[in-house]
Design goal:
It contains 13 helices and 14 strands. It has helices spanning 16-24, 38-44, 59-75, 107-136, 164-172, 183-192, 206-217, 234-237, 254-282, 296-313, 329-342, 366-383, 409-418, and strands at 4-10, 28-33, 49-52, 83-87, 99-102, 154-158, 176-180, 197-200, 227-230, 247-250, 317-323, 348-351, 357-362, 397-402. Helix 2 packs parallel to helix 3 and helix 4 (107-136) runs parallel beside helix 9. The longest helix has 30 residues, at 107-136. The relative contact order is 0.09.
Length: 423
Amino acid sequence: MALQGPFAVIADSPAPDVMDALRAAGAFPIIEATWADAPAALAAVEPEAVILAEPCPDRSRAAALADLLGAQRQKGGGLYMPVIARTRDDGAASVPHALAIAANASPQRLVRRLATALRIRSLHGTVLRRMRTLTSRGEQIPELSNADPPDEANVLVAGRGRAYPGLSVAVGERVGVVGALSVESAARALNVRDIDGMVIGDGFSPKIVEALLTVVAEDMRFRDLPVAVLGGHPSVIEPFAIEIANLERIAEGPQRLVERFLPYVRAHAFSQRLKRMLKSLDAKGMLDPDTGLLAHDAFWRDLNRAVGDAEKRGVGLSIARFSFERHDRRVSLDAARLVGRLMRQVDFACREADHSIFAVFTETDLRAAHVVARRIASVLKNTMLAPDRKSGGIDTAVTLATLKSTDSVDSLIARVVGEVAAG
């Protein structure tokens, strides 16, 4: 599919390789500008994306460009505008949040990353239009979160060498960390957790690195997943460069990797937020866009219906409450999204204002509910780390109650809030 412009290409020297690759991909129109002329060129047109075809020679010009792009985003209603920046080394781009790519990377790889970023812009535009339409009809819609995407992001860090602890700490200072010491554990995490990027550290043989990249490349769910490889294995990585659009090899240490990699994680986390929001809008606000679980009002409506149905049909119904003491919003969001993945199709849940999670197990007696709740609590404990990383996994307090013939919704909730923990 052709790339619909306009696109701005900024460089003091001609960049025929970038221009030829963009034209071959059907990009039109393309505006070329030097760094000195960039402010005037961008003021005259609102580009779909900006390509910095060479590193910025002057920090003040990079700062001015960043300010201008920020102003244009605000003018466009905050619509996401991707910036792809060529760099000479493994460092971050000179423009904040720009997606860095090595200057010697093939132009085809640059175009692939541009197409990936444009999908986020298109998704953002769809969400904003849908919100405006529903608002104009007088419908109540959820708000799109304005939290910084890295505050909600999780990065899978795979490795088992000497650099692994330092790498985990460097990544963990900016985003949530999901650790993996093997291909198998990494694959499980990709399937169970919401992952916004994967870092492959040291301690793995070329065959293991190849296996990890194969897991990502062969699954369409991960086609846009940012992947960074620390250190060597260039011959192993190169064959995956086209299949995995956001694949980078960083030769320097953990801090430089994080600086270069974080903008990709930010963009992926933002795209996941948009997908949840779109599902919420499609469900007319019944889904919470932060967690993917039922919104508060929708949950209580469904619980009242489920209790009435269980009493009428004489079937079981149980409810569990998962609570996380002394942990922050990131933990509760992460846990809620994980609970949503682990629950059965017939069950439903919501996250409360105190960060606890209510989960309703339909047609389930207390014994069966114990089994389901313990399995969920075990996964939470064994796959999530506490924010301080010193206390190990997340301690989840679980309380359970099952519907009795004399129960109302209020009495059922009162018992699950006060019941003894299931362990």
